[in-house]
Write a structure and sequence with these properties.
Layout lengths: L17 H17 L2 H8 L12 H8 L4 H7 L3 E3 L10 E5 L7 H12 L7 E5 L7 H9 L3 E2 L2 H9 L3 E4 L3 H5 L16 H9 L3 E7 L9 E2 L1 H7 L5 E2 L19 E4 L10 H4 L2 H25 L6
Parallel strand pairs: 1-9, 2-5, 2-6, 3-4, 3-5
Antiparallel strand pairs: 6-9, 7-8
Helix pairs in contact: 1-4, 7-9, 9-12
Length: 305
Amino acid sequence: MAEAGDERSGTAQERVSPAELFTEVIAQGLLTLARGRDLLDRCLTEEQSVDDFGFDPELTDEMILAPFRPLYEKYFRVTVEGLENVPGEGGALVVANHSGTLPLDALMLQVALRDRHPAHRALRLLAADLVFDLPVLRTLARRAGHTQARMDNALRLLERGELVGVMPEGYKGLGKPFAERYRLRRFGRGGFAAAALRTGRPIVPCAVVGAEEIYPMVADARPLARLLGLPYFPITPTFPLLGPLGAIPLPTKWTIRFGTPLPTDHYAQDSLDDPMFVHKISDEVRDTVQDMLTEMVRERRSLFG
């Protein structure tokens, strides 16, 4: 795990080519496997979890996140801003936009908080049900601290003082067309706001810029998506035309910004049971994230700079 840097960490990283990145990812994977069969066994079995969700911090640091660190540091050259807005301890809910066709933004967010936050916080992401329908992916997700996006799971994690992450746009944000980039979709039914309100935990708005352009989605092959049981099947300028090569993301420059936390521990109890009030808080967070995105896109010098 890397040492904590300043809040604008990543700005000095040099860009690497896809070939160099692929080589480094493979090398990192081989080094990880060389540590022994124990890590691999722990990764693929249901044993030796630290909590009842299946989270294994050591395995997450040393195996699951390891291949994504070269992406974070050298390919996307992620800059992180506003880390002081993320509490160093105690429960909090990080609410971020979701985009990019594949959920690399969620993993980059996890790396940023684990490696760059002064308290090296583990982000417990609330993930879609599809993640837990696939056997190997399900186990890896649980080992990395992810859990199904359900109210009871969110409440339990927040009450025990975990840092919880949610991307309320879900697949509608992840699979939106390139023409609608950086325009937020609906934030679901506001369940994340209800969880924060019930536990009195702060909501930290988060905006990610750079992920929208890694796989410019120009069309959605919906019949094929239905056939495969997927929420969408992306058509990009390089995929599926170039086959596996089309799955290589563009090396855009990323920025992750954490905004001012929204406290929730001062509201009257009767407000928490009012659906209209919960939606109001949800909309307020969505508007904040949208404003952050708009400002960041305006400030950006170039896609790759």
